Amino acid sequence: MRAGPILSNVLSTGLGALVCALLFPPLPTAADVAQAGGPPPAHRTVRITPMGLHPSVEHLHLGDRLAWLNYSSKVARISFPASVVERLTCSAPVSFRMTGSRFESADIESDQFASLCQLAPGAYRYRVELRSGIGAGHREVPRTLRGTIFVE
What we know:
about 150 residues; 4-stranded mixed β-sheet; 3 helices
């Protein structure tokens, strides 16, 4: 593959090295991680499928974030007891809100995701309800999946 004339000019000058350094910063080394006192924060993923949550128990380190990906054909909604709000380490969670005695995500359509900011150390139980979606009868009983998060 040949670079275009503008890209060739940028890469042939010292500016090319600067652009590459800005676009692709170096990854932390093992020494950087050890000096910081532990592993860098990670973004963990729970897959929602018709058969269950994978994994249904997630172990996080302090600072890690968690996302749920909906691989089912149903609409998913994640909910925690309201008390989890006191344990969030962010000031304005996105896509989650208080609804009565529950802290719930917005509806997560098939092939979509929701993410929760960091949690303080502790154990957290949550549930995921799977529904047929818009137009489903009011008598539909959602399928409920249960998960647990441990933050250390």
